[in-house]
Amino acid sequence: MSDQHAHFKAHLDEEAATLALGAALARALAPGLTIYLHGDLGAGKTALTRALLHAAGHVGTVKSPTYTLSEPYQVQLDGRAVGVIHFDLYRMGSAEEFLDAGFREDFNGDNICIVEWPEKAEGVLPPADIDLYLSVAGTGRDVELQASTALGTSCLQRLKFAPKL
Ligand SMILES: Nc1ncnc2c1ncn2[C@@H]1O[C@H](COP(=O)(O)OP(=O)(O)O)[C@@H](O)[C@H]1O
Ligand SMILES: [Mg+2]
């Protein structure tokens, strides 16, 4: 496996496993990471993000940004304040809406951006360091993570997650 193509696959047999993966990802984050979350409605994208934010130290609710399209948070990463922006672009009407909202400026190499429904902003959305795919499998979920940059690869190399077999 080349360094630029770290890849990870697991079965998440129940919601707790999705939450555990979110928490494990929180411990592997680095400033500037962009993660795309792919998967149908109800696949677990928001559940995973919620667990990630709580494990990263966010106290309080994590709402699904269905209508606001984005919701900013601040967490501490190695003693440094880092912004985490959670996007849900499902209801975004056009690429112009993304640009007019100033969303591109959020992808500034410092913030961590987590994007549900990246397909809706194709062409204007900055590229992902990691693509995460969730799909329904039996009563659980299958998950696949694919890094496509050095930053994403190092994150996946730090990821410590061992689902039950
Ligand atoms: N591994 C899993 N196995 C079974 N159910 C899960 C699993 N992970 C999450 N869920 C459930 O799936 C639903 C996911 O909802 P949500 O996170 O809002 O999905 P999305 O944001 O992808 O539309 C929740 O009801 C959650 O309890
Ligand atoms: Mg969602």
UniProtKB/TrEMBL annotation:
> Might you report a single GO cellular component term?
cytoplasm
Which coarse location class describes where this protein primarily resides? Answer: cytoplasm
Cellular compartment(s): Cytoplasm
Which InterPro entries does this UniProt record tie to the protein? P-loop_NTPase, T6A_TsaE
What are the UniProt keywords, alphabetically? Answer: ATP-binding, Cytoplasm, Magnesium, Metal-binding, Nucleotide-binding, tRNA processing
Q: Name one Pfam family in it.
A: TsaE
Single GO biological process annotation from the record: tRNA threonylcarbamoyladenosine modification
Cross-referenced SUPFAM superfamilies: P-loop containing nucleoside triphosphate hydrolases (SSF52540)
Q: Name one GO molecular function term.
A: metal ion binding
Query: Domain of life, per the record?
Result: Bacteria
Concerning PANTHER family, the annotation shows: TRNA THREONYLCARBAMOYLADENOSINE BIOSYNTHESIS PROTEIN TSAE (PTHR33540)
Q: Which family does it belong to?
A: Belongs to the TsaE family.
Name by which UniProt lists this protein: tRNA threonylcarbamoyladenosine biosynthesis protein TsaE
Q: Which organism is it from?
A: Duganella phyllosphaerae
